[in-house]
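Backbone-to-sequence.
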């Protein structure tokens, strides 16, 4: 009995040592969740301004987002570096297989997320290469780097992203989004007559190409931020549940420990009373 009691105490101490880790992970997840949503909102405003400028230039120059002569197809697949977020990565793999996205031998598949790479390797799906999912502070730099590496090929390249799109707290949907060439813009036509007062003193086509690149980079960043928000939201919910389960388990073990101690005190009190003659001993 004493041995079992010692194990219960040790188990309670072990669980209590885990509790601060869960709290820390929950706090980090919440921070990444809120930060990614705030950055995504700011980025959407920037994208709208770019699309407004593009609408003006397109009206003046008559040049659209061409989808002709595409010879190269790149698919970025966004996952996570860590687990503890349910079927976040498994859902991406299932979506990838269901949509038969790996059947085109001519396309480049770039995985972003170490955990995702393990799943794709186990499924024996060939990929071009893998990149760790960036920290929230590094998302802009990585997006710019990836887009810059394609600058000379953009006229002949299509780029798609498979990721878990954030829909709300602990809610997301796995989607395939084409980000280049952009199929449509939020503002495809000029609605404000005052837009025509702008004077364009640079080659319109050069400006259009520059805006296309900025839109490409911003859209890729937006996919990263949405994926990070979905991952962090899911992990936060899981840590919340884990924290509650830990608290409940600690309470249950504490009740068991206190019951054992009360029983031991009662037994010792009875033995003391018997030895002092206050109670008759039981044969």
């Amino acid at each position: 009995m004493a041995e079992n009691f010692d194990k219960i105490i040790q188990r309670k101490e072990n669980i209590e040592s885990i509790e601060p880790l869960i709290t820390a992970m929950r706090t980090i997840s919440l921070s990444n969740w809120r930060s990614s949503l705030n950055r995504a909102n700011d980025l959407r405003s920037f994208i709208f301004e770019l699309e407004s400028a593009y609408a003006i230039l397109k009206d003046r120059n008559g040049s659209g987002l061409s989808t002709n002569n595409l010879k190269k197809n790149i698919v970025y697949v966004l996952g996570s570096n860590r687990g503890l977020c349910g079927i976040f990565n498994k859902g991406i793999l299932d979506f990838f297989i269901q949509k038969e996205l790996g059947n085109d031998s001519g396309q480049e598949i770039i995985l972003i997320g170490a955990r995702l790479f393990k799943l794709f390797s186990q499924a024996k799906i060939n990929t071009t290469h893998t990149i760790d999912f960036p920290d929230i502070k590094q998302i802009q730099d990585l997006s710019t780097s990836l887009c810059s590496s394609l600058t000379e090929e953009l006229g002949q390249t299509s780029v798609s992203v498979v990721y878990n799109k954030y829909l709300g707290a602990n809610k997301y949907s796995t989607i395939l989004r084409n980000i280049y060439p952009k199929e449509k813009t939020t503002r495809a036509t000029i609605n404000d007559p005052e837009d025509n007062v702008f004077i364009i003193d640079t080659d319109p086509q050069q400006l259009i190409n520059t805006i296309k690149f900025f839109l490409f980079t911003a859209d890729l960043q937006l996919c990263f931020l949405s994926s990070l928000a979905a991952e962090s939201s899911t992990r936060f919910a899981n840590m919340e549940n884990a924290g509650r389960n830990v608290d409940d388990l600690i309470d249950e073990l504490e009740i068991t420990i206190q019951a054992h101690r009360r029983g031991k005190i009662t037994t010792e009190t009875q033995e003391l009373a018997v030895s002092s003659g206050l109670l008759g001993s039981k044969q």
